[in-house]
Amino acid sequence: MKNDAQHADVVIIGGGVAGLSCALYTAKAGLSTMVIDAEASQLQTVKQLNNVPGLSSPAAPLGGSDWLIYARSQAQEAGAKIHGDRATKLSLDTRPFHVVTERGFECTGDFVVLAVNLGYPWLTELGFDVAVNEHVPSGKIRYVVGAGYDGVTAVDGLYVAGLLAHIPSQSVIAAGQGAFVGVQIASRQLGRPYMWHD
Ligand SMILES: Cc1cc2nc3c(=O)[nH]c(=O)nc-3n(C[C@H](O)[C@H](O)[C@H](O)COP(=O)(O)OP(=O)(O)OC[C@H]3O[C@@H](n4cnc5c(N)ncnc54)[C@H](O)[C@@H]3O)c2cc1C
């Protein structure tokens, strides 16, 4: 590992719906949070998002890319750093975890959250079993075998978020699941149940 690798309490790989939602909660809880994102969320092509309760409707539509812009700036305002790049290496057998990107950026994290959705082929290279997420009719979406709504994996400190956690393909569910992972990590790190109420 290079000595100049940045360290964060939480490294989130994939800054789409679930990753950004997770980042908002870990950063707000005071955990240093690094998001590495290849900037190809499935949501960014959605012209009109009509099914986020209280936020969008056919009468007051919100674009998918707008949702992502707002979610990015919300996570950044809470303190998260976002690095636009694709993660290509992740060491599972060192602590902290060590992540390297396509363009040579390196960072370490005490916790890692995998929220890469369509980036699942990389996860198979890392040794994870993935299977078709039968909640999504297209048959193109995968989940990490063994991971459920809590995102917990067999590797201590490593979580999955979003569609990889075997959930249906609705943004509001992916956002909620990402937030749940963030709250669990914050609670673990703080040693008490974390709650954000304004
Ligand atoms: C055509 C279409 C229309 C849709 N319409 C709706 C709708 O109307 N309402 C609704 O609720 N949902 C809709 N969805 C579903 C919604 O987009 C998904 O449920 C949601 O995006 C899933 O969130 P996620 O965080 O799991 O994945 P994503 O939002 O796809 O985010 C994954 C992120 O990980 C990044 N990534 C991948 N590999 C790497 C890597 N190695 N390193 C770094 N980053 C990486 C990607 O670039 C991406 O930014 C639609 C989807 C599609 C395809």
Write the layout of secondary structure elements.
Layout: E1 6-13, H1 17-28, E2 33-37, H2 64-77, E3 81-84, E4 87-91, E5 97-101, E6 106-114, H3 120-125, E7 130-132, E8 142-144, E9 158-160, H4 171-190
Parallel strand pairs: 1-2, 1-6, 2-3, 6-9
Antiparallel strand pairs: 4-5, 5-6, 7-8
Helix pairs in contact: 1-2, 1-4
The structure holds flavin-adenine dinucleotide (FAD).
Flavin-adenine dinucleotide binds at residues 13-19, 36-43, 45-46, 49, 51, 86-87, 115-117, 119, 122, 162-163, 169-172, 174.
Structure explained in plain terms:
With 198 residues, this protein is α/β, with parallel strands linked by helices. It has one domain (6-190): FAD/NAD(P)-binding domain, CATH 3.50.50. It is 26% helix and 23% strand. It is built from four helices and nine strands, in the order βαβαββββαβββα. The chain has helices at residues 17-28, 64-77, 120-125, 171-190, and strands spanning 6-13, 33-37, 81-84, 87-91, 97-101, 106-114, 130-132, 142-144, 158-160. The strands form two sheets. Strands 1, 2, 3, 4, 5, 6 and 9 form a seven-stranded mixed β-sheet that branches. Helix 1 (17-28) runs parallel beside helix 2 (64-77) and helix 1 packs parallel to helix 4. The protein starts with 5 loop residues before the first strand and ends in an 8-residue tail after the last helix. The structure holds flavin-adenine dinucleotide (FAD). Flavin-adenine dinucleotide binds at residues 13-19, 36-43, 45-46, 49, 51, 86-87, 115-117, 119, 122, 162-163, 169-172, 174. Flavin-adenine dinucleotide is lined by residues 13-19, 36-43, 45-46, 49, 51, 86-87, 115-117, 119, 122, 162-163, 169-172, 174.
